[in-house]
Design brief:
Helix content is 24%, strand content 26%. The chain is of the alpha+beta class. Bound molecules: zinc ion.
Length: 84
Amino acid sequence: MTNRKPFNDRAGYLASRINALTTIHNVIYLAAEQGIDADGKYITVCEAHGQMVSSTSMSQARVDMKDASQWCSKCARNLTEVTV
Ligand SMILES: [Zn+2]
């Protein structure tokens, strides 16, 4: 049994982390490898909701990966529902 993560066979995959709001992974990809015309080199995707944000550095992408509620409107709504 390997510890293989989901999504890591996709084009441009760089990193992933479980989104605590959805229990689905947020994934960082190289935008060009995914065929996405983004502002930044990297995109972080909320795989649960299909929303994404671009960033120009891997360090920023990792910040985005840790908190999808900052850029995924559906995660933001989940967060509101949990905390209110
Ligand atoms: Zn989301």
